[in-house]
Amino acid sequence: MTSGKLLAGEPLIAVRDLSIAFAGTTAVDGLSFTMKAGEVTALVGESGSGKTVTGLTIAGLAPPEARITGRVTLAGADILGSTPRQRRLAGHPALSMVFQDPQAALNPVLTIGDQIVEAVRADGRTGARAAAARALELLDLVRIPEPGRRFSEYPHRLSGGMRQRVVIALALAASPVALVADEPTTALDVTIQAQILQLLIRLKDELGMALLLITHDLGVVAETADRVLLMRDGRLLEDRGVRDFFDGPRHPYGRALLAARPGRRTRGEPRPRLADTSAPHLISGEGGGAC
C-alpha cells in the first residue's frame, strides 16, 4: 500500500527486512521492527552497530552510495529510498530527524528565524508572513525564552542546549508524525541533557508523534523508552518492552551490557566479555513488533 493512509491497527512505522551496504560491506542486515504512534522506541547499540545509518535511512537521508533493500512504510506509504522533498511532493506524512551535534546541524551564516522560516516554507504553500509567525510559534513550543529576540540571532549566540532546541524546532517545521533523534544529548552538558530529553517526550505526547531514540545510554533508555531494539553488527538481537529488557535480557549480549553498567559488579568479579556474546538471531518479547 502506498496511499499514506493508516488503517486501524496498522503500525505508524514498519521496517521490513532492511539491509544497508557500503562498497560490499553490510552495515545493516535484515532489520525488521514496527512502531506505534505515541511510542518511544530506543534503538540501542555500540558504535558501528548500524543504529545511526538505520535512522538516516528511515528519515530519507542515507548517503547516496548506500545500497538499500527492504521496505519501510510510514502511515502505510512506502518511503524507502525517497528523500524528504520527494515525500513532501508525494503528499506523504513527514518524518523528521534531530541530529547529535546542533552546531553542525545549523547554518552559521543564517539567523535562527531565517532557517526555521525556510523549513516551514519547504511545503511550497506557506507565505513569508505566515512562515515567520509559525517560526515564532515553534520557538515558543520548544521553550526558547524571548522567541522574538532569538528569531534574529545567529546560532553562535546561543548555548548548546538552546541550539539543540532550535534543531528540534526545525524538525517540527514539517509537522511530522514521527521523529528520529540520533544521540540528541551526547554533545550537551550533563545538566542540559535531561532538559532536552524531557522536551522531546513532552512534544511527543503533545503532538502524538512516534519517537525513535538512537542511543548507547542505558540510563536514558530506562527513563524514556517504551521499547528497546538492541543491535549489534547490523543485526537486531532483541525487541522487548523496556521493563522486560531491564528485568532480564534474553540475549547474552543484552545480559552482558546490563552487567557492564557501573555498580553492577562486585569486587573481584570479572568484567563481562562482550566479544563472546555475538549471535545472529533475534530474541523478541511476547507481542514484539519485529518479525
Automatic annotation (TrEMBL):
Similarity comment: Belongs to the ABC transporter superfamily.
Matching PROSITE patterns: ABC_TRANSPORTER_1, ABC_TRANSPORTER_2
Listed name of the protein: Peptide/nickel transport system ATP-binding protein
Domain ABC transporter: from-to ranges: 13-258
Region feature Disordered, mapped onto this chain: 262-291
Pfam families named among the record's database cross-references: ABC_tran (PF00005)
GO molecular function: ATP binding; ATP hydrolysis activity
Subcellular location: Cell inner membrane
Signal peptide positions (record): none
Topological type in the membrane: Peripheral membrane protein
